């Protein structure tokens, strides 16, 4: 499902115009990014948490040049689903195999 598909589905289910759904969704994404960039986690009960994870400094390797490269410690965004979220996915009868990405889809 792409963002446009999600907007269409929300618009159909709620009766809210697609433009308003798009603005709301874009604002939500922007606020999540902004809040995480400020170092604050976001907790949404029944859905999950958007958190900042710390990656330790390590030594990597440039394979082409065969040179060790120091990678400094850094922070990455992560999503941790709630127990309810995980349970709903586990109990779903519609999921039969691992989802595959279509070659024509851009991620």
Helix and strand topology:
Elements: H1 3-14, H2 18-37, E1 42-44, E2 48-55, E3 58-62, E4 67-71, E5 74-81, H3 83-90
Radius of gyration, CA atoms, in whole angstroms: 19 Å
Order of helices and strands: HHEEEEEH
Q: Please state the structural category.
A: alpha+beta
- Note the beta-strand portion: 25-35%
Q: How many DSSP-defined strands? A: 5
The fourth-level CATH homologous superfamily of the largest domain is IHF-like DNA-binding proteins
Q: Kindly state the percentage of residues in helix.
A: 25-40%
Number of domains: 2
Largest sheet, described in full? Answer: 3 strands, antiparallel
Question: What is the count of helical runs?
Answer: 3
CATH class of the largest domain, please? Few Secondary Structures
| CA-based shape | extended
CATH fold call of the largest domain: HU Protein, Chain A
Give the terminus-to-terminus CA distance.
11 Å
Low-confidence stretches: none
The overall pLDDT, averaged over residues, is 90
Strand order of the largest sheet: 1-2-5
CATH architecture of the largest domain: Irregular
Quaternary state of the chains = single chain
Give a description of the structure.
The strands form 2 sheets. Strands 1-2-5 form a 3-stranded antiparallel sheet. The chain has 2 domains: 1-38; 41-95, Irregular (HU Protein, Chain A), CATH 4.10.520. The protein has helices at 3-14, 18-37, 83-90; strands at residues 42-44, 48-55, 58-62, 67-71, 74-81. The radius of gyration is 19 Å and the shape is extended. It is built from 3 helices and 5 strands; from the N terminus they run ααβββββα. The longest helix has 20 residues, at 18-37. β1 and β2 (48-55) form a beta hairpin. The model has no long low-confidence stretch (mean pLDDT 90). The chain is α+β, with helices and mostly antiparallel strands.
């Amino acid at each position: 499902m792409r963002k446009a598909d999600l907007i269409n589905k929300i618009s159909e289910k709620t009766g809210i115009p697609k433009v308003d759904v798009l603005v709301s969704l874009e604002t939500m994404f922007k606020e999540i990014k902004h809040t995480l960039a400020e170092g604050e986690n976001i907790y949404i009960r029944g859905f999950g948490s958007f958190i900042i994870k710390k990656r330790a400094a390590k030594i990597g390797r440039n394979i082409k040049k065969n040179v060790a490269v120091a990678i400094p410690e850094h922070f990455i965004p992560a999503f941790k689903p709630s127990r309810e979220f995980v349970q709903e996915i586990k109990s779903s009868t519609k999921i039969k195999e691992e989802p595959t990405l279509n070659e024509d889809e851009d991620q």
